[in-house]
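Hi R.,

Here's the input for the LD2JLWAY complex you asked about:
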Amino acid sequence: MKAPIVVTTGEPAGIGPELALMLAARHATDWVAIGDPELLRARALALGLDVEVVIVAPGEAHPGPRRQRLAVWPVALKEASEPGVLSTANADYVLETLDMAVAQCLAGKASAMVTAPLHKGVIRDAGHHHFTGHTEYLRDACGVEEVVMMLATDSALHGRVVSADATTDSLHSIPLRVALATTHLPLREVADALSQKGLERVLRILARDLTDFFGVVSPRIAVCGLNPHAGEDGHLGREEIEIITPVLERLREEGLALDGPLPADTLFTPRHLDGVDAVLAMYHDQGLPVLKYSGFGQAANITLGLPLARTSVDHGTALDLAGHGTASPDSLAVAIALAEDMGSRVAER
Ligand SMILES: NC(=O)C1=CN([C@@H]2O[C@H](COP(=O)(O)OP(=O)(O)OC[C@H]3O[C@@H](n4cnc5c(N)ncnc54)[C@H](O)[C@@H]3O)[C@@H](O)[C@H]2O)C=CC1
Ligand SMILES: NCC(=O)COP(=O)(O)O
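And here is the predicted structure with LD2JLWAY in place:
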């Protein structure tokens, strides 16, 4: 029996639980949700979604795909949850769903994990002061030194090369993969967090996983500078000269195809993206606004460098929409489809 993909349902006050239910209402699903079955039943009832929530023992196989049925490996809420209302009491519940997913993936009982959004702030407020996101939590849970966050628009999930039509003047038609050199940290700490060693590790993971998971044989990666105009020859910052360029030169000697460091403002234009397989941005809000402008709601977030396959949605908890049934489940569907593909490739390597 094939191990199922598991979908952690995320922050119980957010849209995660209802997105899982919406997909189960529309399609015959063969993945297993991890979360509180009573929460899911209550949300289904409130939203008028005709979905039977079936409890399965953790690690056990899916009972078989059928539309309007959602299989769940149960984790109990710490207290009842209202849509849109955060509670620190349920932070440990959210983390327990992740721990179950990791343990079952590493034990071979799950083939990949997909995460619905959690709320980073409420988990920190609950006392997990070092928590910054799934990406870093999974890195530590899996005991690896470095991981890479990459988001990809749906159209960039498969196929060899991100090929921009040079005559296109809109980003909307361009498949994009955007990876980050740093993830969740205050902007004022970004420059200090960049190092030659870290950047080299990130580029090696990115190049390897573009090949392993996306079938790109010799990936070409465009690397952003950190500073305006990529530092303007040192007049607007020295990170390009002291950190980024030496790493790129070293890795080019090994045969990696790396462009840059390039000014980030013009890198994200059709001509510069032509033939590029992924962009490496130096920080979260340098790269992700472009990705989201290009394909918000139709993209997936992938953690590269883990010993398991993990994908996620491209959005957050959307507390403003929770409980209304109006949020789009499309990104979750994209993330699940990608996890299917990645899961089989992780098993091969
Ligand atoms: N993978 C994850 O667990 C992620 C978690 N977050 C967390 O989510 C929380 C809220 O973050 P925000 O920055 O407010 O971003 P957000 O994505 O939750 O909301 C931004 C805007 O997008 C809308 N939106 C989000 N998802 C949507 C969907 N599926 N369909 C339609 N509209 C949607 C929201 O209504 C809101 O107007 C934060 O704690 C953040 O850290 C954010 C991104 C990813
Ligand atoms: N904006 C993407 C993001 O914050 C993803 O966070 P996470 O998957 O590490 O929780």
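One thing worth noting: The pocket of LD2JLWAY (ligand 2) is lined by residues 133-135, 288, 301, 312 (CB under 6 Å).

Cheers,
M.
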